Amino acid sequence: MTAGSRDDGRAAAAIVRARRDAPYRLGIVLGSGLGPLADAVEDAVVIPYAELPGLPVSKVSAHAGALVAGWLEGVDVLVFSGRSHFYEAGDAAVMRNAIGMLSALGCEGVILTNAAGSLREEMGPGSLMMLDDHINFSGGNPLIGEASDARFVGMTTAYDLGWRAAFERLAETAGIPLSRGVYMWFSGPSFETPAEIRMARILGADAVGMSTVPEAILARFFDLRVVAFSNITNLGAGMTGAELSHQETKDMAPVGAKKLEKLIRRFLRDQAG
Questions:
Q1: Cys bridge to 192: 51, 81, 196, 256, which one at CB 3.0-4.6 A?
Q2: Distance of alpha carbon 154 from alpha carbon 181, whole angstroms
Q3: Nearest to 86, CA basis, from 251, 209, 234, 249
Q4: Are β-strands 207-209 and 179-185 bridged in parallel, bridged antiparallel, or unpaired?
């Protein structure tokens, strides 16, 4: 997608309004294993990304390619069932129109989710980690090429303090273990090496993955609140002696996804109240 093809989601927003006009509050970007959350949306209008100008169609298995607009736990939401990644075409801004569309439709913020590898042995497959911060190890940035001074986005509190506190309370009440930590973004698509995992741990990362950071930067650019979660599907390379695979990610993702779905639904109920 070239810079000239980006309109910050305004054309896509117009199509969504034509299909289902509502006071949308939140966007939710679903990572691997969270497809059932999209299926739970009521009064749903499903729009394939191919029908929304500027929204990229992911070619990753286990990632659907549709926007689900509807009602969930009393809140009008826009659910991205699947996302495109930097590694698919080398474009860090591949989700710019998608995130911009949320702003154009009046959303307050976005919930980002991903499947990730843990760097902490006690935070194994099936665990959940809420992001306190991130490290952009890939070096890519979705705002490269943005001409306005708005490109200088502050990231000191990229992940909303109030929403993080709310999710912590909900997790404690529900008895769902919820770790907190720093997510390091690698470009992918190859998995990290054991040496890179050792480096990441030294630099202060708690989990590694191939998404979310560009979307968080874009969300702050569009003045959206952000909260993000890693669904832990494996331990990092070299920590178990086993080779990593995308199949492992797909197999393990539903375990943590069920817990995360429960938390998101409880959060939405609170927002509706």
A1: 196
A2: 20
A3: 209
A4: parallel
pTM here is: 0.94
Q: Check: CB of residue 167 under 8 Å from CB of residue 263.
A: yes
Token readout for 183 is 């997510």
Residue 196 in tokens: 């890179």
Residue 55 neighbours by CB under 8 Å, 6+ apart? 9, 12, 49, 67, 97, 98, 101
Measure CA of the first residue to CA of the last residue in the chain; give whole Å: 40
pLDDT number for residue 182? 98
Best CA proximity match to 127, nearest among 117, 136, 135, 141: 117
CATH number of 209's domain: 3.40.50.1580
Please count the structural domains in the chain: 1
What lies within 8 Å, CB to CB, of 186 at 6+ separation is 137, 138, 192, 196, 208, 209, 210
* pLDDT-based confidence at residue 156 (cuts at 50, 70, 90): very high
Report whether 230 contacts 116 (CB < 8 A).
yes
Range of the domain at 182: 3-272
**Measured between alpha carbons, how far is 145 from 68 in angstroms, rounded to an integer?**
30
Write out the catalytic residue numbers. 32, 63, 85, 87-88, 115, 210-211, 234, 246
CA distance 220 to 231: 22
